[in-house]
Structure formats: C-alpha cells, structure tokens
Amino acid sequence: MKRTFLATPALLTLALAAGPALAGNIDEPIITPAPAPMAAPVIIDTGSDWTGFYAGGSLGYADVSDTTAAFDADGATYGIHGGYDYDFGSFILGGELEFSGFDVEDGANSISSVARAKLRAGYDAGAFMPYITAGVAEVDVDGLDVTDTGAVYGLGLDYSYNDRVRIGGEILQHEFDDVGGLDVDATTAAVRVSFDF
C-alpha cells in the first residue's frame, strides 16, 4: 500500500510535467506567407514610328473661285507627293513637296496644276497621325497664261495601315493674290495613299 501511494504521486508529477509538451502551445506560431511575385510590367508597343521618307499619290476635288466671280468652277484633282517625317515621340515634324493636276474649267480659263511645298506638324496617336500643314503654292492657269505664288494651309490625317503603307486625307485652303489681276481662292479635299521607305 505504501508503495502504491508513492508511485501514484510520481506518475502524476510526470504526467503534469509532460502535459504541456504533449498538448501544444496556446500561442500558435504565425506563419507569414511569402509575398506573391510581382508581375512584370506590360510594355505596350503602339507600333508607330513615323520617321522616314514617304511618297505616293492622291485623288481629290477642288472648288475654285475669285472675288469678282469671273472664275468660279470645281472639278477633280490628282497628284503625286513625297516627303520626310521625323517622330520626336509624341510630336512629328516633316516637310513635303506635292504636284497636283487640276481638271477645273470655267469658259476659256482652266487651272491646269498647283505645286506645293509644305511643312507638317503632327501628333503621334499610335496608328493615326493628325496634322496641320502650311506652306507655299504655285498655280498655273491656262487661258490667262499666268502663274501665281500664294499661301496654302490645312489639316490632314494619316493612318498607318502597315509598316509600308499609309492612307490619309487632307483638306487645303489656297490663297492667290494676283492671278491675272484677280484674287483666287481654292479649297481642295483629297484622299492619299503613301508608301514608306
């Protein structure tokens, strides 16, 4: 009996001492998950670089009149152009030479051609380039057998169809002060196709 009594407190002491070790800690360790890897930044390539030479052709329409209404006619235009653009990032600057034939007649007088030298300032909007343009133009009038140099200015839009082809449109206002003694204005609208080099 004495032996059992002594053995029982020893077992109880041993059980109490081992109890917390077997039961686990009340404060469980906090496991912080590893941070998720960050995705690499997505670089959007607009695919637009307008820098380079281009050349092409145009078809359009012209409305020509003078201040006295002695000449008032409209008709078709067709032409060729070539130029160079430099893309500064979002701003584009370039120059262009253009020659347009005119099928515009009023009686014995007809406008046979207009030659232009223009500067262009545009905005790089990806595949699109809206631009403003201004320069000088020379008109050749049959019948009166005269030429005159005046101002030209307007708006345009080019669309980069692919790496080699751009399609666009342009509206120009021409002002000539001395076409056989007359002030002549001409408004043209043209569809253009150009090839990049």
From TrEMBL:
The keyword Repressor does not apply. Keywords: Signal. The lineage of its organism: Bacteria, Pseudomonadati, Pseudomonadota, Alphaproteobacteria, Rhodobacterales. Residues 1-23 form the signal peptide. This is Outer membrane beta-barrel protein. Residues 40-197 form the Outer membrane protein beta-barrel domain.
